[in-house]
């Protein structure tokens, strides 16, 4: 048998959106459309115990995905773009370069930018999707993408940076210019909870270490 090639297809899908990016609720009933572009079929492995994907590795016809052996702990599942394009768009890399974006001005003057609408890969948590092995169906609705930052985690990171900057002050002989710069930096860090009160934590930017301080480490 000669080398097999993949049939590349495009398939439009409609999918649910959360009330806002990473909100994990759909009380407003938002939906969006996305066009999957990729192989017409891929094969994945599901863990028999967790009923979730063993990993996000997939195999195509070119990879002889249908012929790859399956160990007793896993179930091999074929995804077809005709029925599984939404899930396939989470696994097969998609081109986002032509997607529209929207910007949000933050209280400190910085700008937060996000795709509009958010594509499926940034909407659903692919590693949490479950497969009903007995009935051979993927359970829907798919789990929402979880926030990658909480306010508690943000405050921990802020305090860690404050400790690091405190160590810089204690272990280096700084000029007045450097002292002023690092103190201004530290004040921005301290003010984060107040400055960004009411802002989603994953949108909050951290200040960069001042150039006057970077010079110490760059020689």
Description of the molecule:
The protein is built from 5 helices and 9 strands. The longest helix is centred in the last third of the chain and has 21 residues, at 151-171. Helix 2 runs antiparallel to helix 3. Strands 4-3-5 form a 3-stranded antiparallel sheet. A two-stranded antiparallel ribbon has the order 1-2. Strands 6-7 form a two-stranded antiparallel ribbon. By secondary structure, the protein is an alpha+beta fold. The mean pLDDT is 96. It folds into 2 domains: 8-138, no CATH class; 151-217. The radius of gyration is 24 Å and the shape is elongated.
At a glance:
26% of the residues lie in helices and 22% in strands.
Bin the strand percentage: 15-25%
In angstroms, what is the radius of gyration?
24 Å
Spatial arrangement of strands, main beta sheet = 4-3-5
**Helix content range:** 25-40%
Domain count, please report it. 2
Nearest-integer average pLDDT = 96
Name the shape in a single word.
Answer: elongated
Oligomer: single chain
Spell the H/E element sequence. EEEEEHEEEEHHHH
| Uncertain residue ranges | none
Helix/strand class: alpha+beta
N- to C-terminal distance: 61 Å
Helix segment count?
5
- The number of strands is 9
Sheet with most strands:
3 strands, antiparallel
Q: How is this fold's topology laid out?
A:
Layout: E1 8-16, E2 31-39, E3 41-47, E4 59-60, E5 74-80, H1 81-91, E6 101-105, E7 111-115, E8 131-132, E9 137-138, H2 151-171, H3 176-190, H4 192-195, H5 211-217
Antiparallel strand pairs: 1-2, 3-4, 3-5, 6-7, 8-9
Helix pairs in contact: 2-3
């Amino acid at each position: 048998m000669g080398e097999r090639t993949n049939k590349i297809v495009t398939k439009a899908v409609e999918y649910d959106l959360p009330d806002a990016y990473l909100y994990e609720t759909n009380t407003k009933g938002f939906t969006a459309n996305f066009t999957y572009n990729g192989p017409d079929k891929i094969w994945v492995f599901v863990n028999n115990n967790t009923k979730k994907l063993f990993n996000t590795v997939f195999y195509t016809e070119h990879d002889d995905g249908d012929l790859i052996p399956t160990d007793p702990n896993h179930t091999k599942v074929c995804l077809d773009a005709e029925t599984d394009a939404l899930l396939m768009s989470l696994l097969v890399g998609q081109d986002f370069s032509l997607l529209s974006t929207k910007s949000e001005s933050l209280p400190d003057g910085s700008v937060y930018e996000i795709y509009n609408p958010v594509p499926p890969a940034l909407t659903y948590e692919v590693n949490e999707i479950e497969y009903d092995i007995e009935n051979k169906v993927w359970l829907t609705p798919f789990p929402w993408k979880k926030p990658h930052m909480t306010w508690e985690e943000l405050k921990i990171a802020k305090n860690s940076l404050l400790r690091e900057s405190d160590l810089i002050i204690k272990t280096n002989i700084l000029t007045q210019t450097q002292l002023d710069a690092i103190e201004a930096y530290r004040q921005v860090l301290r003010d984060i909870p107040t400055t960004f009160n009411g802002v989603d934590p994953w949108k909050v930017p951290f200040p960069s270490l001042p150039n006057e301080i970077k010079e110490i480490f760059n020689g």
